[in-house]
Design a protein that fits this description.
This protein has helices spanning about 5-15, 35-40, 50-60, 75-85, 85-100, 110-115, 120-140, 150-160, and strands at about 20, 30. It is built from eight helices and two strands, in the order H-E-E-H-H-H-H-H-H-H. It folds into two domains: about 1-60, no CATH class; about 70-163, Chitosanase, subunit A, domain 1 (Up-down Bundle), CATH 1.20.141.10. Helix 1 packs across helix 4 (about 75-85) and helix 5 (about 85-100) crosses helix 7 (about 120-140). The chain has a two-stranded antiparallel sheet with strand order 1-2. It is about 65% helix and about 0% strand. The protein is mainly α.
Amino acid sequence: MTPLDALIDKLLDREGGIADVGDGKGVTSWGQTPAWLAEFNLSVPENREQAASNYLIWLEEIGLKPLLTPWDDLADILLDIAVMSSAQKAVKALQSALGVPVDGVLGPRTMAALSGSDRRQLARNVIAWDIEYQGRVITDNPQRAEYAAGWAKRMAAHVRRLA
């Protein structure tokens, strides 16, 4: 198993199987909504292996793989944000943590800043960014507060792994 496969395996554990969580996005298969699958022209996964394959195709297409090469806490939280929010949000979180201009584009400036950075400290800062982002989502759209406990539980698990 490659480090990226292990990272996706961890994501699939978090996402669970097939469920409709009532968020209006329909039946989600290992974190893959019908709209997301259609956007990336992927088939509805019938099992965990197909879901993992979809994630690998998606990561290649969106260009996020260079951030996820090491299997570490930073890669884990960035993948989680990309799946829960978007790849652009994951890059923005990273750029904010790096102190580079935040444009959501994974370019040479972001990669250069990342190359010499402490990935563990960046993971802490990215988690903090995501907690603040989730707070803004709830403040801007109070009906989303019904998901706050689940989001907080997910972020708490990331924090515990860093402890």
